[in-house]
Amino acid sequence: MRLSEQEHIAPISPKHDGLLSHLAAAQRLRLPSGDACIRFAVTGTDSSGYQYEIGVLSDRTGNREPDSLFQVRQRAVENTGAFNAALIVPTGIGAEIGGHAGDATPIVRLLAQCCDTVITHPNVVNASDINEMTDNTLYVEGSVLSRLLMGMIGLQRVRANRVLTIIDAHVDQLFENAAVNAVSAARATLGLTGSRVVRMDPPLKMTATYTASGRAAGEVHEFERICRVLDDYEGQYDAVAIASVIDVPEEYHRQYFGAGGEMVNPWGGVEALLTHAISSLYNVPSAHSPMLESREISSADMGEVEPRLAAEAISLAFLHCALKGLHRSPRIVTDADAMRLPEVMTAEDVSCLVIPDKCLGLPTLAALEQGIPVIAVRENENLMKNDLTALPWQEGQFFLVDNYWEAVGVLNALKAGIDPRSVRRPMRATVVETTGSTDETDVLTA
Length: 446
What we know:
It is a single chain. The protein is α/β, with parallel strands linked by helices. The protein has 3 domains: about 1-60; about 105-335, no CATH class; about 350-445, no CATH class. Helix content is about 25%, strand content about 25%. The chain contains 13 helices and 20 strands. It has helices at about 20-30, 105-110, 120-125, 140-150, 175-190, 225-230, 250-260, 270-280, 295-300, 310-315, 320-325, 360-370, 405-415, and strands at about 1-10, 35-45, 50-60, 85, 115-120, 135-140, 155, 165-170, 195-200, 205-210, 215-220, 240-245, 285-290, 330-335, 345, 350-355, 360, 375, 400, 445. Strands 1, 2, 3, 8, 9, 10, 11, 12, 13 and 17 form a 10-stranded mixed beta sheet that branches. A 7-stranded parallel beta sheet has the order 6-5-4-16-18-19-20, with helices on both faces.
């Protein structure tokens, strides 16, 4: 089996109406029978159409069938007993905040102070040997977060998971030892349940690439081998950590650290492709950490690096962040009856979605469809080229703010049941309509 990225264009939908179903139909036309879409993003929108990129699982074997990414179960209500925010910084888009080694963690910690729960994904808080997410943060794989917002799954908090760690057979024993030691350290300090490490020989074949949009992507070959491991150990794990080598040109290491944070992290895109596929097929939390290729790379002196990259410059195994996140990553609930249980979080329990501006992926499309308020942050610059204000939002559903400080202000207003516009001046005049007239949706721009 093979995981890879494809780039396509879909025609514009008038006024962007029915956008989720429109894009679902477009990608179905592009996929050969038997292939499955496991990752999706609209990288740009203009008069020619929606430029979109999809991660594809092809040459499939076995009986496991991933659910359609575009399947949605409309939420009937919003549960208001708690205020829960989803925070997303898409992987591989060169985000100014969150595009590197867990450098969006302070945003998670900030939002956690005004929310009952923050739901986020590994890219946001994974920082090599560091993971400083708060106790009220739910750590879920990106495709799982999308399916939550789509209403297709629920999340159940756990006390602890049994974590299965799969590592590459490496030509240099140093890096295998580093991974095993990271697992042992997590057992000794976190109390991690997961004494088994499976060594995959021959190693997984992962290659990092970039798409035409500049987004980090890649390919995974012989994916069936990791599926074989997961099948062989089925019932003996609740979450999966993978540590494997990602093939990149050797000069990328020095270029990445030397570019002062301006180079898009080349490793994240193919990591997301792998974990999306695992979590989609097996319905378990998963996270990936890269293994270094050689001692020459591990011992290279990168000097004093840009702060956002520093966590990557001081690690050898890069694995502890994933182990800590997976330790208590919530259980994925797919049974419709179980999703109704009060302890299971569903789309009905999501109060708000916070994203970088211009990001139009499945979470944004799901929120648009479900009526979930969305806060887009201008300051988190990235490669995406979409005008989110043009989408057919309901009144008071979309808020465009300058920075995460302002995002927290909007979150608090929504939590208090206050129209965020009521604390700004000048206030818009009250509109009096004559029967039959319409007023266009208003977007808050701060």
